[in-house]
Amino acid sequence: MPTPSEPAPAGAGAVRTLIAPLRYVQGRGALARVGEFVAPLGRTPLVVADDAVWGFTGGTVRDSFAAAGLPLVRDGFGTYATAAAVEAIAARIGETGSDVVVGVGGGSTIDAVKAAGHLAGVRWASVPTLASTDAPCSALSVIYTEEGAFEEYRFFPRNPDLVLVDTQVVANAPVRFLVAGVGDALATWVEARAVARTDSETMAGGVPTLTGTALARLSWDVLWENAESAVEAVRHHLVTPAVEKVVEANTLLSGLGFESGGLAAAHAIHNGLTAVPHTHGLTHGEKVNIGTLTQLVLEGAPRAEIVAFVELTTRLGLPNTLTEVGLGVDDVDALTTVARAATAEGETIHAMPFAVRVPDLVDALRSLETLSTTIRDRAALPAPAAHRA
C-alpha cells in the first residue's frame, strides 16, 4: 500500500467540528432488525423504496416492522433525488401523519428521504441496500435535475438518526456497486488531506478536526488492504471479513471523513461531469474516480502514488480515462463545460491549496488518457472490462 503525503499541521484559532449519525448498524441479517431500531425514532413510519428494491427487501421489512409493533406504509421512488421528488415525499409525510421517514435503497432514494424529512420536520433513517456511496451517513443531500445533472447541495442541521446496512443484501447486489463505493471512498483521504493543508471549512460547518481527517485516512488504509479481496467475495455474493471492512469504509468511514474532513477537487469534478450527458450512465463512484485521479494530476502528486492509484483502481474495474466515461481528449467543448461547472462559485474545488482555473482543469482531464494507458501498458493491465469500447 502506498503511503500518500501527509497534510501539514492545521493552524489554530478556527472552530473545529465533527458530525455523525446518531446510530450506525451493520452486519449480515441486519435488515431483519430494522423495526427494532426504527421504533425508538417514531411510531408511524413512512418507508420509501423503489419497486425493484422493495422486491427483495419488502418481506423482511414488513416482518420486522410487525415484530416491533409498527405499521407499514411504503411509497415508491423514481430515479433521481430531484426537488420535485423531495417535495412529493414531504407531502406524503404530512398526508400519512408520519413521524419518521425511512429510505431503503440507493443514494438517490436516501438523499431524497433526508431532504424530505428535514422539510417535513420529522426524523429520518437510511437503510442502504448498496455500499456504493457515502451518502447514507451525511447531513446533506445532493439534488439533481430531472435529466441527472447536479443542481445543488442541501444541508441539514443533523445527520440521520439511524443508518442500517445489511451486508448480505450488499453482497447480493451486482459487484459494480461495491466497486463504485470504493471509487467514492478512495477520494475521501485525497480530498481531506488537501483541505487539512488549507484549513478550509468542511460540510460539517467548521474546519477539520483531527478525528475527521484521521477517519478519512483510515478509510483509505482499509480499502488498500481489503478492497480487492472484498470485490472477489462479492462476485460470488459472499460476506467475508474483508467485505465487512470495505462496507464500513465505503459507508461510515468515508461518510464521516468526507463530511468532517472536507471535500476538494475530486467531488467538484464529479459534479462537473454530470453537466454533460456523456456520463449519465455512470455511477457516482465511477465519476468520482476520474475526479480523484484528476486531483492527483493537478496537485503534481508523486509519480509512484499516481501509478499505484491507477493500477489498483484498474484492477477493481474503475475508469481512469476519458474514453471510459464517454468523453475524449478532443472533446474540448464538453470538457470546458465540465471544468466550468467544477470551478463554479461555491464548488469544493476552491478548498484546494491553489487556484484551479478552467484551462488548468481541461488540460488535467485531457492528460488522463495517455497517463493511464501508459501506466496500464507497463503493468500489463487491460482497461476495465465494463468500460472497454
A few lines on this structure:
The protein has 389 residues and is α/β, with parallel strands linked by helices. 51% of the residues lie in helices and 10% in strands. Helix 6 (175-198) packs parallel to helix 8 (241-261).
Question: Key terms for this structure?
Answer:
Rossmann fold; alpha/beta; ADH_Fe_CS; 8 strands; 2 domains; EC 1.1.1.6; ADH_Fe/GldA; zinc; 389 residues; NAD; 10% strand
Through-space gap between termini? 30 Å
Low-confidence stretches: 1-12
CATH superfamily of the largest domain: Dehydroquinate synthase-like - alpha domain
Determine the mean pLDDT.
Answer: 94
Beta-strand content estimate: 5-15%
Q: Based on Cα principal axes, name the global outline.
A: globular
**Strand runs, count:** 8
Major sheet: size, sense and barrel closure?
6 strands, parallel
Task: Give me the Rg, rounded.
Answer: 20 Å
H-E string: EHEHEHEHEEEEHHHHHHHHH
Using the coordinates above, name the CATH class of the largest domain: Mainly Alpha
CATH topology-level fold name of the largest domain:
Dehydroquinate synthase-like, alpha domain
Q: How many structural domains can be distinguished in the coordinates?
A: 2
Oligomer: single chain
| CATH arch. level architecture of the largest domain | Up-down Bundle
- Structural class per helix/strand content? alpha/beta
Strand order of the largest sheet: 1-8-5-4-2-3
Relative helix content: 40-55%
Helical stretch tally: 13
EC number: 1.1.1.6
Binding site for NAD(+): 50, 107-111, 129-132, 138, 140, 144
Cofactor: Zn(2+)
Pfam families: Fe-ADH
